[in-house]
């Protein structure tokens, strides 16, 4: 056990604790477990292969880049961008240094919680990649911090950069009959007490801290932006479900245009 802990604490691909805390906390073990669990789900449910071109929207400090680097072949490619410059710099120094087919960019996009001095509106940001560049695009805990206009624009950009029949994996907090019932029963981790017509927020003083979307509205956004959801949506435990292990709701969708 002592040797195992020593090896964990000296992993050169383990971000510093303050960065880990910013992507959900739980320490090194949780950081690695979540990354490995998501990768396994992508392999099982989205047929992610080791030779694909992927885009990580909201790459943070590499929670998914690290397991992907160990899974991908040299023929694969990874692109990621994030609004937290220190996290991007760490990824460049530690991951790109070892895996030159992994690239990271800082995007100075405004977010009231995570980048309040950002110069670019999310609803106006064009992903810095060519049309139809990727086989697989993923966003983990990104739309849970964005408002409707921004989400719609990002979905249009995802469709643009996906190859025909390419797919995306996106996590949400989705409000539907079941999750609303569990919230009302005080079983949910979040209350989402400040409710709008199509979305709800947890903290009125930090609007983008935690955002949930009406499921019908989210489905319509996918359709409007050329993406077809592959059923079923994989619902998470956030609202008090006891038969699932993942926290957030996961949506797989394909480019249809």
Secondary structure layout plus pairing:
Layout: H1 2-9, H2 17-21, H3 27-45, E1 53-57, H4 65-71, E2 77-82, H5 85-96, E3 102-106, E4 134-139, H6 148-161, E5 162-172, E6 174-175, H7 177-184, E7 194-195, E8 199-201, E9 211-214, H8 215-224, E10 227-234, E11 249-255
Helix pairs in contact: 3-4
What attributes does this structure have?
about 260 residues; Rossmann fold; alpha/beta; 8 helices; disordered N terminus
Number of strands: 11
- Helices and strands: which structural class? alpha/beta
The count of domains is: 2
| CATH architecture term of the largest domain | 3-Layer(aba) Sandwich
Radius of gyration: 18 Å
Order of helices and strands, N to C?
Answer: HHHEHEHEEHEEHEEEHEE
CATH class of the largest domain: Alpha Beta
Q: Give the overall silhouette.
A: globular
Strand order of the largest sheet: 3-2-1-4-5-11-10
Percent of residues in beta strands? 15-25%
CATH fold-level name of the largest domain: Rossmann fold
Query: Poorly predicted ranges (pLDDT <50, ≥5 residues)?
Result: 1-8
Most strands sheet: 7 strands, mixed
The tally of helices reads 8
The CATH superfamily of the largest domain appears as Vaccinia Virus protein VP39
Mean pLDDT: 94
Share of helix among residues? 25-40%
């Amino acid at each position: 056990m002592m040797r195992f802990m020593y090896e964990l604490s000296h992993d050169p691909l383990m971000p510093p604790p303050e960065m880990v805390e910013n992507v959900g906390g739980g320490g090194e073990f949780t950081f690695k477990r979540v990354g490995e669990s998501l990768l396994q789900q992508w392999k099982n449910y989205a047929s992610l292969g080791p030779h694909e071109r992927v885009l990580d929207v909201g790459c943070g400090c590499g929670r998914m880049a690290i397991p992907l680097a160990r899974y991908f072949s040299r023929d694969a490619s990874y692109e990621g961008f994030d609004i937290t410059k220190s996290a991007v710099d760490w990824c460049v120094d530690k991951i790109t240094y070892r895996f030159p087919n992994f690239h990271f960019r800082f995007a100075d996009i405004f977010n009231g919680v995570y980048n309040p001095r950002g110069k670019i509106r999310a609803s106006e940001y064009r992903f810095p990649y060519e049309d139809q560049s990727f086989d697989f695009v993923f966003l983990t805990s990104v739309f849970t911090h964005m408002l409707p206009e921004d989400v719609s624009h990002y979905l249009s950009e995802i469709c643009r950069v996906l190859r025909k029949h390419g797919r995306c994996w996106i996590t949400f907090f989705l409000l539907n009959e079941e999750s609303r019932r569990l919230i009302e029963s005080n079983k949910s981790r979040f209350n989402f007490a400040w409710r709008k017509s199509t979305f709800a927020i947890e903290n009125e003083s930090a609007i983008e801290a935690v955002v949930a979307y009406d499921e019908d509205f989210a489905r319509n956004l996918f359709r409007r932006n050329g993406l077809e959801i592959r059923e079923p949506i994989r619902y998470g435990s956030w609202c008090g479900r006891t038969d699932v292990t993942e926290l957030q709701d996961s949506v797989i969708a394909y480019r249809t245009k």
